[in-house]
Amino acid sequence: MPETAIAGWDVGGAHLKVAHVDGEGRMKTVMQLPCPLWQGIGHLEAAVAEALGRLGAFGLSAVTMTGEMTDVFESRNEGVRRLIDTMQKMLPDGEILVYAGKAGFLPPEKAVLQPDRVASANWLAGATFAAESRSQGLFVDIGSTTSDIVPFRDGKVAALGYTDHERLVRCELVYTGVTRTPVFAVADRVPFGGEDQPLIPELFATMADVRKRHSNLKVWCHIDVLERSQAWSIPALCSDFGFDKEVLVTQFLTDEELAYYYSGCDLTLLPSLGEG
Prior knowledge:
Elements: E1 6-11, E2 15-21, E3 27-34, H1 42-54, E4 60-65, H2 76-90, E5 95-99, E6 105-106, H3 108-111, H4 115-118, H5 122-133, E7 137-142, E8 147-153, E9 156-157, H6 164-169, E10 173-174, E11 189-192, E12 195-198, H7 207-213, E13 222-223, E14 226-227, H8 230-241, H9 255-263
Parallel strand pairs: 1-4, 4-5
Antiparallel strand pairs: 1-2, 2-3, 5-6, 7-8, 8-9, 8-10, 11-12, 13-14
């Protein structure tokens, strides 16, 4: 049981995840903040600053990361170094430990010397925690971009791979997530209108667009510099089917225009969020 409050920071390429545990080991706060890291390191600084304004007091920060892979860095090694430097700058008070996979938690000055162990090692942290809690099972972590599928038994992680390449080959790392995955990466054909409809392999829509049409969950998503909205989801999905020019997004029409277009339609699809 921890003797001091701990803040856990998972620095991703799309989001910053933060957890706050008090001195008695009780989870006090969990949050996920938008952090489009590929647009600049300033987004991480802003996300950390926002989190600090919402967290209670803590004396130790534990850091994991996957954001070192974003295009803003020339290499993963540079990404690891700059992310560690940024977290040190933003968290000047208290101790900081960086997770380095099989090497465990290291102080920043030692972690920067082992970038290969630090880079994208958060999956092992989660799987190790699960293995220490149960004798055997399957640890599954589904994120916005990727999913980790890691077996454990006898209280230990039983993964066959360690690096991203090794884990991809062994299907322990799957590049499918709940928001940023292109629709055509999940399926190349879908049944539509009584026909087997192929999907266009172009980045028109992501799984976030699908989820917005079939779920009440609120999702923050970004592709390049574009932030998705409810209004964007329908045109993006229609582009994947190749007939976006024939589709009208009804929330942009007046009631009189709606009546006119409805009367001339052979098929009405999702007329609004509250209907159909």
